[in-house]
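My current task is to audit a protein record that another person submitted. What it holds is a sequence and that sequence's fold in token form. Thanks in advance; the entry in question is below.
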Amino acid sequence: MLTTGQGVVNGLGFQVAAPAALDDDKKSKVIADYLRRLRRAEDWVFKHPQEWAKVWAKETGLPYETALDSVHRSHGTRVTVAVDEAAVASEQKIADTFAELGLTPRRFSFGDFVDTRFNAGLPPSTAAPRSYGKGH
């Protein structure tokens, strides 16, 4: 049976870094810089969907219209949000479901893998995605 993740997953994505990198002050500053740049890039894509679709289509070989549709449905609508209590709770629910289904070798606490020091100035994880409106 085919299904979607509607109502099952939260749509959140995460950046991952090695604990050793997070524990290193110099590398942690580089990670923070990367996250700021990523957020600026996502903001640019939202404001310039046609330009991004042209580049993305060229790089991937996708037809321009397919790339533009993807930008309107996903890439351009992304919002960088805080890894807050609501995000951790939601991810824990997903992790528990995977464990119950035997899709992971053991249960674990998602919160043990979270670093919240990069949350400053970000909206809550429950923030709505951006929208291009009708007709894009």
Notes: The chain has two domains: 21-78, 82-131.
